[in-house]
Amino acid sequence: MALDAAWARAWMAGVGRSMADNRERLIDLDRQIGDGDHGENMDRGFAAVEKALSADDAPDTAAGILKTVARTLMSTVGGAAGPLYGTAFLRASKAAPAGAFSAHDVHDVLAAALGGIQARGKAERGDKTMVDAWIPAVEAAGIQAEAGSSPEEALNAAARAAEEGAAATEPLQARKGRASYLGERSIGHLDPGAVSTSLILAQAAEAARAREADPS
């Protein structure tokens, strides 16, 4: 089943539920190496996204939906996450196709999001940031696209890679953001932004599976 605006809307609804369910977990992770507000910010931001996408004048294209997500997160999410995720979804909206997504489109949208995050935050792989989840996700989607896989398979691979990338932040020493002030004390903790990234991409894949199972 095609990945289109209905999929993008279902994706964002799923992210809203996931952020609510994982609010306390993200707060705890951020409390260990940051300000402790990541879970609250993400929950508030995606609750606002759901409200914006439920409005009568909400966009009816995937690109429009992603652009609305970007603007909403920028205006409602505090700390570094708002500008980073806002820029990610804004760049993603510009890369989104007019119609249904192919596997190459999935890769291009994720790559655009990553590019926005790195342009804004200047982080590289190994800095113990959300980039450590985004880079493997983009790489995995690219491999699937080049192999001729479906967009659903590309999303599944990206989600798995993001989860693995988030887990791999635990032994790293933070080199960017507030966590970097802790030096070696940041070792042994998961990066909350990488974890929230893995949750977001997990919901992208879940929404695609749901569409495939029930196209109505």
From TrEMBL:
Taxonomy, superkingdom: Bacteria
Pfam family, one: Dak2
Keyword terms of this UniProt record: Kinase, Transferase
Residue ranges of every copy of the DhaL domain listed in the record: 6-206
EC number per UniProt: 2.7.1.121
InterPro entries membership: DhaK_L_YcgS, DhaL_dom, DhaL_dom_sf, Dihydroxyacetone_Kinase
Enzyme class name: transferase
GO molecular function, one term: phosphoenolpyruvate-glycerone phosphotransferase activity
Protein name in the entry: Dihydroxyacetone kinase subunit DhaL
Organism: Schaalia naturae
